[in-house]
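User: Teach me something about this protein's shape.
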Amino acid sequence: MFVKAQLKNRNFYAMILMDICIFIITLFLSYFFRFDFVLTQVDMKQITNLLLWMVPLKTMIFFLFGLYSGMWRYTGVRDFWKLAQACVVSTILVMTVSYTHLRAHETVLDLVCRLLLEKNN
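Assistant: First, the predicted structure itself:
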């Protein structure tokens, strides 16, 4: 019943859209700071690949933690802790997936070394 009322609220969609924009901007900023404000095509491809699964995952986690259940003017300490927990859980999931499945942590040098090692074996 609460979910139906929530889906009719236009502020609900505004909050989700703002969070999605924040997720995208922070990923770009992290890459800009990491690579001294110079992004290559490889970096842009990594960002695109990350955004395709990371934004829906983080949005779903925020929804599951109940962050979209109230308006911001009623936010208190309890909501802050829910936000902190959702951020920690989503960060752990993103790091786990990217390091185990996507190999987003590898640089071009790492890939060359790994390919050379595989070729020798």
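Now, about its shape. The radius of gyration is 18 Å. The chain is about 80% helix and 0% strand. If you'd like, I can walk through any region in more detail.
User: That's plenty for now, thanks!
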